[in-house]
Write a structure and sequence with these properties.
The chain has 430 residues and is α/β, with parallel strands linked by helices. The protein is built from 17 helices and 12 strands. The strands form 2 sheets. The protein has a 9-stranded mixed beta sheet. Strands 1-2-3 form a 3-stranded antiparallel beta sheet. A hairpin with a 2-residue loop joins β2 (61-64) and β3. α1 runs antiparallel to α2 and α4 runs parallel beside α5 (157-166). The chain is globular, with a radius of gyration of 21 Å. The model has no long low-confidence stretch (mean pLDDT 94).
Length: 430
Amino acid sequence: MSIPIRNITGFSKLAFNLRLCLDRTCYFGRDWLTGRSTFSQYIITLRRLLLFLITMQHNKFIGIDGKIRLGLYIPGFPSRAFDQATRKFCSFGIKSPSTTVLISVTSACAFRCEHCYQHLDKGADSPLGPILDAARELQESGTAFINVEGGDPFLAYDRLRQLCEAVDDRSEIWVNSAGKGVTLDRLLELKALGLTAVMFSLHSHDPETMNRFMGRRDAWETMQTAVELCHQAGVAVAFNSCLTVEQFADGTFEAIMEQALIFGACLIQLIKPKAAGNWLHTRHTTFPPEVLAAIVDKVSLYNCSREYQHYPSISAQIVEESPEVFGCTAGGSDRFYINAKGDVQPCEFLNISFGNINQEPFINIFDRMRKTFDRPGEIWLCEKYSAYISRTMEDKKIDRLPLPLAESRVLYEKWDRGPETEIYKKIEKR
């Protein structure tokens, strides 16, 4: 019962662009006709949407079960979640909503991945109530994409299920997993609650290499079994892959793309190794400019070339977060992270906290963070300030991450986030 997946390229992509423009013209036209917006706001909204759509053309669009998505964090069209996401562009006089949140429901994990950014996130899992309340508040404020992770959410299945039950179809749900605890019955139940896809780890095409990287001899087998169960349940399969400089040079990237195709993936997310958690201060995160440029070329080849049109779409952080595209949208500009302990972080790779939802209301923490991240910037803060975070841990004898609120505030009150990302100057012009 594999879910229907198709790549939208060539003439089909052009036709979809035209269809989407017409649909949104009518959709937001209703706001104007009913007095919800002025004619001037209506025209500005359409211009913002057009600029956003033009910016997304480097992606290979994907059809998943009849809904077409422009990128990883953009819900499929048509859907209520897509409507909610595009309402970001009709915000006037206020900061536009954060459309994406990554929520960790548990720190429980059966694996010990080399790159784990949660390696030092010690402490008991938060009570579920504040997490559910935060998810509901985010839906009301405009969040349209909820990415649930752990640890591994399937190892705390009741918490995962309750989170999926707490939100409605104004938000699309994806789950990140290494495969432990995945069963057919659970997938079918979650699909009925709105689950679109499960994203697995695929850091090598070689089973033994993958097993060593993830710290268990059955890592590959566990993932492979879970992928097959997803296909049986009609849940889309995606992968994330964290590759070093050497792996982009030795053919590993191309081999992973082949394997993702064999596994029937709709999308693969390329995560640039980040200076966080286990790799807070290591050589693995350093990519020379010429290497980054070469990777961008490879991504473009797979996403835009006719020769590779049947391969899964690639969502690459080094492309999406580049100054030429969206830059760093952490901190609630467009995405942020709530860890399993309840800490609100700008993103999963930036190991600082703006507060804990078990100690003060979520909305207070969220507003404080969003004021700090008033506009998206060009600098990857997780990399620029990783050494500072590491030194602070040592100087203050802190044995866990993220940094507590007091130490985090010392950093974020004086840091340099770089110039505002150019596209957001235009999209969020008030």
